[in-house]
Amino acid sequence: MRLPGWPTLRDRVAAVRLPRTRRGQRRLVQGLMAACVLALVPATWMRLEAGDRVGTTAEAPAREVAVVFGAGLWNGRPTPYLAHRLDAAAELYRTGKVKVVLVTGDNSRVEYDEPDAMRTYLTGRGVPDGRIVSDYAGFDSWDSCVRARKIFGVDRAVLVSQGFHIHRAVTLCRSAGIDAYGVAVDEPRDATWYYGGARELAASGKAALDALFRPDPRFLGPEEPGVAEALAPSG
């Protein structure tokens, strides 16, 4: 319901006037082109920064730890994209490329627990529970990278995510002090994939600032021995 006196959508659209002169139109186009270039700069920098540190599970080097980033839940279970990340991590474990899987995600609400859902999925695919470590405060990629280094003591890792995100993850984790290699999980070029790629343009700007200024994550907390304990010889 529109309040009396408020302009309609048609009124607001009509109020937006494009430049009528050729010079004004040229400036508008130049401004739009400049904005597009500026939006692409951070994403391009991250792709170049990651360089040849991105590949498949078969190409990944042997590292003690794999880090899997959260990608949402549906009815308490991993979304298809998150499930594919976890499948890749399970493959890395089965083939002996990694010994421990650090799952990092959002548990800011009681009813929403990404790390536990990720753990359940991995154990269902043969990864022993004792080889899975949970980070419950991985609220974004930068927080996950910083906490992996400062809280869990990870200094070398294989990162697992989709191709549209993995370059940003590798760049951020390297900025946080982790020698990182990224596994790019292949996905069909569907609407979700294109949405993720478009979202990266917006996220890359924040990520560039995080890499430059290196802020503390939203929640840091004390060091946790989970990764070291999982790597310790049994018995």
TrEMBL record:
Domain DUF218: start-end pairs: 65-192
Entry superkingdom: Bacteria
InterPro entries listed in its UniProt record: Cell_Envelope_Assoc (IPR051599), DUF218 (IPR003848)
Protein's name according to its UniProt entry: Integral membrane protein
Native source species: Streptomyces globisporus
